[in-house]
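Minutes, methods subgroup
Present: GH (chair), OT, SY

1. OT presented the first of two proteins processed in the latest run. Sequence and structure tokens recorded below as shown on screen.
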Amino acid sequence: MSVGITSHVLDVSNGRPAVGVRIDLFRLEGGAVEMLRSDVTNTDGRLPGPMLSGDDFTKGTYELLFHVGDYFRGKGVELPEPAFLDQVPIRFGVADNTSHYHVPLLIAPWGYNTYRGS
């Protein structure tokens, strides 16, 4: 098992992996917000590797920002303006930086779900 932060996205409205979803990773510390990385999901709806690992993976508060509105627009889904869900932020704490934090997102144009996966 790897150590760090990973993610994947599933489009439950189509029952398929969500290909091409941009995910941004931020670290939040003392009121400051630092963008650490941005990546895009592959054909399996997964990122090509950990968003954060090694010495950069420290205890603290992080946020993944999923750009789901762009994904659905790219699939030809007609969304209202503004879209009900355009960007989905998931803020979570890392208490043990020797563990794996997998943060998946299940999406549809009108809802989402997340959990700490394995």
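2. SY then presented the second protein from the same run.
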Amino acid sequence: MGRLTTHVLDTAKGQPGQGITIEVFRLADGSREHLGNAVTNSDGRCDTPILEGDALTPGEYELVFHAGDYLRAQGVEAAEPRFLDVIPLRFGVADASQHYHVPLLLSPYGYSTYRGS
């Protein structure tokens, strides 16, 4: 059974990104369908897969990480508007029977992602 998971690592502090709201969208024909929200736990992961089983189908998706709210809560001072606030990550799912792990490595002025396992 396929599934979509994520986790957030705060690379500036060397710790998991706890309490980050993540929205998930399916993209098709120029539109975005909101599929739900998740919040990272103390390990920077979501307690359950973001999508799994029949909810994960081949196509394009977007995870939207509300990083600015997390950085504010961490006391990271920055000029407003922040350099990073809402971070959208778009990716494709070719084989919905596989595990797609899409982590976010975050700092106040940069981020990266990759397909994990």
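Chair's summary of item 2: The longest strand covers residues 31-39.
Next meeting: continue with the remaining queue.
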